[in-house]
Each structure stands twice: as C-alpha cells, then as structure tokens.
Amino acid sequence: MNEKRKKWFGLLLMCLLLCTLCVPVSAASKLSRLQVKGTKLVNSSGKTVQLRGVSTHGLSWYPEYVNQSAFTYIKKNWKVNAVRLAMYTAEYNGYCTGDAANQRKLEKYIDNGVKYATNAGLYVIIDWHILSDGNPQQHQKEALKFFKKMAKKYKNNTNVIYEICNEPNGGTSWNTIKKYAEKIIKGIRTYDKKAVILVGTPNWSQDVDQAALSPVAKKYRKNVMYTLHFYAATHKQWLRDKAQTALNKGLPLFVSEFSICDASGNGGLDKNEAKKWLTFLDKNKISYMAWSLSNKAESSALIKSNCSKTSKWTSGNLTAAGKWITSWYKKKK
Ligand code: IDC
C-alpha cells in the first residue's frame, strides 16, 4: 500500500470506530425527566407534557405482552408515549400473595418492561396494583421494601414513574391512604429524589376532591400527582366535576387507568362519554393510560381474544375498544 492509500485506509478505520462508538450512545439517549409544575407535567425545558398510553393487564396473567417488539410497535404505530406495568399485589399470583419465586418472576417482568420501554422511547409506570386488598396499609411493609428496591435500581432511569397504590377501596379513608403514601414516598426519596410518584385516591381512585382538601405533607409533595380512574360507561360528568374541583384547588391529576366500557371491565362501550372524557383531559393536559393491553375475552381488552399475536397488530386484531382508543391516539399529535 502506498502512503496515500495507507492514510485513507487509516481514516476509514477511524470513521468505522467512531460510528460503532456513537451508535450505542444515541440508542441509549434518555427521555427528558418529567417534573410536576402546578397541575401539569413538564419536561426539562419546562414544556408541558401529556402522557398518553396503555396499561398492561396483570403481569402474572399476561406477561407475553411485555416484549420489545410490542413496545416499539405501539410507540410508532399507536403514537403512545407511555406504558404502565400493572403488578397486582393480591389477585392471581400477586406480589404479596405468591411465593419468593413469584416475586422474582414479577420483578423480572418489570425489569424487562423498563428496558423495553427505555429502548422504545416510552415513559413507564411501575404500578403497585392493589384491588381486593383495598387498604394499602395491608401490605405496607412489602410495598416499602419493593419501592425502595425499585428506586435504588431505577434512580437514573429518567423515564420511570412510580404508582404506589392503584385503587384504594372498601371505605379506606384519604387520611389512611395519605399516611401510607407519605411512608412510601419517603422510602422512594431515600434513593430517587426526582421521579414522578402517583398516589391513589379513595373509592377506586375517584375521590380526588378529598385529596385536594389535604394533599400529602409539604416535604413529600414535590413531583407527586394524584390518580383519577374512570370507566366511561359508568363514570360520567359527576366524576369530571370532582376532577374539576380538584384541579381548581391546584391538585395535579393523572389518569393512570381508564376504559371506555363500564367499571366491570366487560360491559358495553360508551363512545360518546369517552369522547367527552378525553376531550376534557386533553384540554387540561392530563395524562391517561388505557386498560388493557391483553386479549382477555372482555370488552376492555384492546386485542381480540382470538388473536394470539403479541405485537404488530392489524386493525382487524383489535376489539371495538382497541380500535376506538388507538384511533383516538393516532389522530392526535
Ligand atoms: C380487572 C380485569 C379482569 C380481572 C380483574 C381482577 O379487567 O380481567 O379479572 O381486574 O379482579 C379496575 C382495576 C382493574 C380491573 C378493571 C376492570 O384497576 O384491575 O381489571 N377496573 O374491572 N378499576 C376499575 C375497573
């Protein structure tokens, strides 16, 4: 090789080396950390951000939907920017009712879910899905241990959001939920000072007006939002009124779960009411996550029960709710 050729060859090698170095850097590029400002979420440049996405069904029931292809697909084709990982605490191989091997399995699903969401460029909610265990204090010890572990692990993942109690119910008062929330927030903040934390509200995360009267203590209030859940065929204007009351008091709201059917998760759809809800949420820049990314034979499932695909769904693979919700997502933004 003559001198000139050697020089070009050297340059080429250098370029190749630089390229291989740069690719992983850009692939790991981080989503902007979100903060709560007033009632809204903002990114690191202060711009308002609204998260719109889907929730998995229970991770023990439908772990197969937590896969890279699905997360990349929904981001690109459904135009969502967030996914929620619903981990039941009590029902069917729940985190607190199953054994240690079951806990490890669930933590692995979460770990994968966070990884796939990060790769896909999605925000990801780790949801402590209490339901039949309507008082979050019932498993407070386990919750504290779990969230400290998560916070330690994910403190540098700028896209992780913690939801500390899905739907308190059974008459659990706001005061009880608040006491629980303050303990868990304190635990999370030991490791992760910044992540957004979502707190459930009384009566299946509907009574946000009660939370608005007395939010968590000031020292725990930063980057905390309060959840509002609705199922459009059951919850109507009266629940939007509660939401408006809470907003007027300055309470930051986050709809971490909704569907357009009734509260059983398996009744008729109310598209008219669903449109009113999502229009209201868009207007107020409130984030929302649809239940559920699964093919369970129930009307809230987004995928038809006869479809076994776990990604790359065509419109024919979607249920009526799936079609309506994804076309809403695609239309906007
Ligand atoms: C439902 C599921 C259903 C499952 C049940 C477990 O859709 O397949 O058998 O939970 O008890 C909620 C809850 C959510 C419910 C959903 C529909 O957060 O866990 O899922 N729902 O009932 N709140 C209001 C409705």
Number of strands: 11
Q: Largest beta sheet, briefly? A: 8 strands, parallel, barrel
Mean pLDDT: 94
Q: Portion of residues in helices? A: 40-55%
CATH level-two architecture: Alpha-Beta Barrel
What shape does the CA trace take? globular
- SS element count, helices: 10
Describe this structure in words.
The strands form two sheets. The protein has an eight-stranded parallel β-barrel, surrounded by six helices. A three-stranded antiparallel sheet has the order 1-2-3, with no helix packed on it. Helices cover 41% and strands 17% of the residues. It starts with a helix and ends with a helix. It is built from ten helices and eleven strands. It has a single domain, classed as Glycosidases (TIM Barrel, Alpha-Beta Barrel). Strand 2 and strand 3 form a beta hairpin. Residues 22-29 have low confidence and may be disordered. It is of the alpha/beta class. The structure holds ligand IDC.
